[in-house]
Amino acid sequence: MSDRLRLGVNIDHVATLRNARGGAVPDPVRAAKMAEAAGADGITAHLREDRRHIRDADIDHLMEHLTTPLNFEMAATKEMQAIALRHRPHAVCIVPERREERTTEGGLEVAGDDNRLAHFIAPLAEVGCRVSLFVAADEAQIRASHRIGAAVVELHTGAYCDFHADGRFEERDLELARLTEMAALAHDIGLEVHAGHGLSYETVNPIAALPSVVELNIGHFLMGESIFVGLDRAIKEMRRLMDEVRNIPIAETG
Ligand code: PXP
Questions:
Q1: Ligand 1 mutation target, pool 217, 220, 231, 238, most atoms within 8 A of CB
Q2: How far is the CA of 136 from the centre of ligand 1 (A)?
Q3: How many angstroms separate the alpha carbon of residue 20 from the centre of ligand 1?
Q4: Which of 238, 217, 216, 215 has its CA nearest to residue 226?
Q5: In angstroms, rounded to a whole number, what is the distance separating the alpha carbons of residues 86 and 159?
Q6: Which of 164, 197, 215, 225 is catalytic?
Q7: Cα of 198 from ligand 1 centre, angstroms
Q8: How far apart are CA 61 and CA 136, in angstroms?
Q9: Do 15 and 53 contact (CB within 8 A), yes or no?
Q10: What is the pLDDT of residue 228?
Q11: Which residues, 6+ apart, have CB-to-CB distance to 168 below 8 Å?
Q12: First to last CA, the chain
């Protein structure tokens, strides 16, 4: 396995910190530029309906200043669709959104909402955005994503990371087995496979080792770590861990 895994750095929580005081600092665009310099292959930003972190002006500035692709995360609403169609970012990742949640808690319900989502993503794909659906490691959701014309699925690694953090290692390993199987299935039916949510230095290795996964999107852990070591070092260490796994031949990973 030698293909380099892409790292998308999610900068939402730079905006969370900025908004805590209502001013202009820290600037998410500055963080994005630093992330690019540190080796990020793309920048991810989630414009939530309640604008709790990233704001509309941040998306304008990111589109203007980034030299790597923007992965624009959004809910499947008319308002967000219009914003994405105006900006035409490289990628659009559709996520479920509930106002009361602290973060994106579950995967998108694609199978039960396929007709609406098919019509929702078609215009985005038509203007050239790579449409990704953020789903759990669930066969029905993955097959439905393919059926409605998504180019990419991003597998939700949040449950795997939570089980790890809680010391529930049997459940973690079961979830990892599901992610492994579903990443292979998604790839086999023709989808590009990404993964993300909750990943840290401790949890990234087995996910980075999945041969079908070509991109990881990581934010909260990196921003937290950057308080202690700086953004540049935090991102470079994540990159190193991701590259290390990819350079080990599959036969030797056990
Ligand atoms: N991928 C998706 C689709 C997400 O919604 C998020 C969180 O915004 C992430 C990746 C990054 O998760 P984290 O901030 O926990 O690394």
A1: 217
A2: 13
A3: 20
A4: 238
A5: 34
A6: 197
A7: 7
A8: 31
A9: yes
A10: 98
A11: none
A12: 13
Run of H or E including 18: helix 12-21
Q: Are 68 and 89 in contact (CB under 8 A)?
A: no
- Whole-model pTM over 0.90: yes
Where in the chain are the domains? 6-243
- Ramachandran angles phi, psi of 134, nearest 5°: -90, 105
pLDDT, tens digit only, all 254 positions of the chain: 457 899 999 999 999 999 999 999 999 999 999 999 999 999 999 999 999 999 999 999 999 999 999 999 999 999 999 999 999 999 999 999 877 777 777 899 999 999 999 999 999 999 999 999 999 999 999 999 999 999 999 999 999 999 999 999 999 999 999 999 999 999 999 999 999 999 999 999 999 999 999 999 999 999 999 999 999 999 999 999 999 998 744 444 33
Question: Whose CA is closest to 167, among 202, 216, 115, 121?
Answer: 202
Is position 46 annotated as part of the catalytic site?
yes
Among all chains, which residue has been given the structure tokens 């908004």?
19
Find the radius of gyration of the CA atoms of the chain.
Answer: 17
d(CA 253, CA 120) in angstroms, rounded, equals 41
6-243, superfamily in CATH? Aldolase class I (3.20.20.70)
Residue-wise pLDDT tens digits, 57-93:
999 999 999 999 999 999 999 999 999 999 999 999 9
Residue in 206, 207, 210 with CA at minimum distance from that of residue 184: 210
